Sequence to fold (130 residues):
Amino acid sequence: MNQNIIAWFEIYVKDIERAKKFYNAVIGTNFIDSNPPGESDEGMKMAFFSPMENQGVSGALIEMPGTKEGDGHCVNTMVYFPCEDCSVEEARVAGAGGTVSRPKFSIGEYGFCAICVDTEGNPFGLFSMS
Fold:
């Protein structure tokens, strides 16, 4: 199991090409464009910061309908915490004062996720391979 406290991150963007250009100019990242995995929404675009095989923490830019541009003060980033089976941690969310906004779902060959909201209103994801 990945021992990093964060397994994955996503930066939600309004214009993925503009965002790729920005991050390439600032940190020199050459993105890997990808089709959305699993049951992803139609109209979603993804660009990975590094190959999926990366053993460290990796992530992607995500463009999808409904995404709003940040104003420098709102959060447009999602972190995913690694789990053995994300349904176990998902079951603890409500008891701890949070909410589950999307119960465990498949992301195809990449595993499973659950999307939750903490007590401060911050969304976060739980990720597992099973």
